[in-house]
TrEMBL record:
Annotated protein name in UniProt: Aldehyde dehydrogenase 1
Molecular-function annotations in GO: aldehyde dehydrogenase [NAD(P)+] activity
Lineage: Eukaryota, Viridiplantae, Streptophyta, Embryophyta, Tracheophyta
Keyword annotations of the record: NAD, Oxidoreductase
PROSITE patterns in the cross-refs: ALDEHYDE_DEHYDR_CYS, ALDEHYDE_DEHYDR_GLU
Membrane spanning stretches: none
Organism: Papaver somniferum
């Protein structure tokens, strides 16, 4: 089975945690109640530090600062070019502190340190650069009206934005939300997940150093039921962008509707299919499918948790997938030889193990894995089930862990039908060398992003979001800017003009 490494964290110097308070109006402050909560190291289950616990009154303060900065401050009134220059400086400061930020995400979320340093943190900086470059390219249109009027549209910042981000990609999600909102000229309050507040606070510090004016970016740590609820229902927030579970997405949307009908965008759960056809290269297909479920220990909304393999290569695929899964190294995320760190916290760890037990009860065959690894921390073996059907909970529900359901299909039509038999629609993978199959299937699956002969092919220029109960609105790409802009039409009469 997967092995547990001891890692090198014991000999590695962990930097002192510098920022544990709330960041409101350009200052680190205690919560008004004085409450704090513990943030936990998932490698051991031990406390890293305590951070300030923001509640409704702290959200009110942050929103007041953001509202003042939007209504009377210079950020929305700067040229896009000037906002972009400051955002570029922000990105440069992130690059200068990659090591320390990556350590924070490893400590807080159990993410692999070496991937944080080469992927997550650099990508966060580059996402900010992408939107910095877009900040002076936000244009309206001139309208050709049918009467003696002239018209044009203005794209204006939507106002004060509330960002509620998840724990699985703390840095990436920070940049994906904050980048386009800053470029648009919005001000904002961001609530990081209670499991992973440390890097968001560090980014707030760097934003201040970069010259982002006070009140433009506020960070309030806290829990969804208090701080998150206060953001969703706040009468002076103009838009909420939420990434997380479908269940909480419903609550956010209800709160927005019953308060001031604020605009909402939701990036929610997924149960993404990977469809592997007979003509696929077996080794590449196995590697892609394993990466699709084991990357970031399966804690990723687009995890390829439903793998459909055509009958001609199914038996060979099952054998090879089991062999490779058993060599997968589960261990300390500070150890560069580890391929999978711990699940983010005890609740998630127990949830995943309970789904594995449910899969056994429903009659699925446990091909490999299925158990916890080690005596401490929240590590779980790579787990593959076969002999599952579409009615099994492990096929229907988002598990958010390293658990794959492996299934056989015969025809293209069957694969499409079964891939779409889900309440989610976030992503899908197709593995084939047949262009006609790739085109047909990619156009037939109801999901927001389709990866052909690749997976997790995220790019800051490629929009990302879901169909059905995976939410609506798009992150990344120029489409993400639309979430933070209002369209205003201006019409005036024209007299004696030779042109309409």
């Amino acid at each position: 089975m997967a092995t547990m490494t001891n890692g090198e964290a014991g000999s590695m110097k962990i930097p002192k945690i510098k920022f544990t308070k709330l960041f409101i109006n350009g200052e680190f402050v205690d919560s008004l109640s004085g409450k704090t909560f513990e943030t936990i190291d998932p490698r051991t289950g031990e406390v890293i530090t305590t951070v300030a616990e923001g509640q409704k009154e702290d959200v009110d303060l942050a929103v007041k600062a953001a509202r003042e900065a939007f209504d009377h401050g210079k950020w929305p009134r700067m040229s896009g070019f000037e906002r972009g220059r400051i955002m570029m400086k922000f990105a440069d400061l992130i690059d200068e502190n990659i090591e320390e930020i990556a350590i924070l995400d490893t400590l807080n979320a159990g993410k692999l340190l070496h991937l944080g340093k080469i992927l997550d943190i650099p990508q966060a900086a580059n996402t900010l650069r992408y939107y910095a470059g877009a900040a002076d390219k936000i244009h309206g249109k001139t309208l050709k009206l049918s009467q003696q009027m002239q018209g044009y549209t203005l794209l204006e910042p939507i106002g004060v934005v509330g960002h509620i981000i998840p724990w699985n990609f703390p840095s990436s999600m920070f940049a994906m939300k904050v980048g386009p909102a800053l470029a648009a000229g919005c001000t904002m309050i961001l609530k990081p997940a209670e499991q992973t507040p440390l890097s968001a606070l560090y980014y707030a510090h760097l934003a201040k150093l970069a010259g982002i004016p006070d009140g433009v970016l506020n960070v309030v740590n806290g829990f969804g039921s208090t701080a998150g609820a206060a953001i969703s229902s706040h009468m002076d927030i103009d838009k909420v962008s939420f990434t997380g579970s479908t269940e909480v997405g419903r609550i956010v949307m209800q709160a927005a509707a019953t308060s001031n009908l604020k605009v909402v965008s939701l990036e929610l759960g997924g149960k993404s299919p990977i469809i592997i056809f007979d003509d696929a290269d077996l080794e590449k297909a196995v590697d892609l499918a394993l990466m699709g479920i084991l990357f970031n220990k399966g804690e990723i909304c687009v995890a390829g948790s439903r793998v459909y393999v055509q009958e001609g290569i199914y038996d060979a695929f099952v054998k090879r997938a089991a062999e490779k899964a058993k060599t997968w190294v589960v261990g300390d995320p500070f150890d560069p030889s580890s391929q999978q760190g711990p699940q983010v916290d005890k609740n998630q760890f127990n949830k995943i193990l309970s789904y594995i037990e449910q899969g056994k009860k429903e009659g699925a065959t446990l091909l490999t894995g299925g158990k916890a690894v080690g005596e401490k921390g929240y590590y779980i073996e790579p787990t593959i089930f076969t002999d599952v059907n579409e009615d099994n909970l492990i096929v229907k529900d988002e598990i958010f862990g390293p658990v794959m359901s492996l299934m056989k299909f015969k025809t293209v039509e069957e694969a499409i039908e079964r891939a779409n038999k889900t309440r989610y629609g976030l992503a899908a993978g197709i593995v084939t060398n047949n262009l006609n199959i790739a085109n047909t299937v990619s156009r037939s699956i109801r999901a927001g992003v389709i990866w052909v002969n690749c997976y997790f092919a995220f790019d800051r220029d490629c929009p990302y979001g879901g169909y059905k109960m995976s939410g609506f609105g798009r992150d990344l790409g120029m489409e993400a800017l639309e979430k933070y802009l209002q369209t205003k039409a201006v019409v005036t009469p024209i007299h004696n003009s030779p042109w309409l």
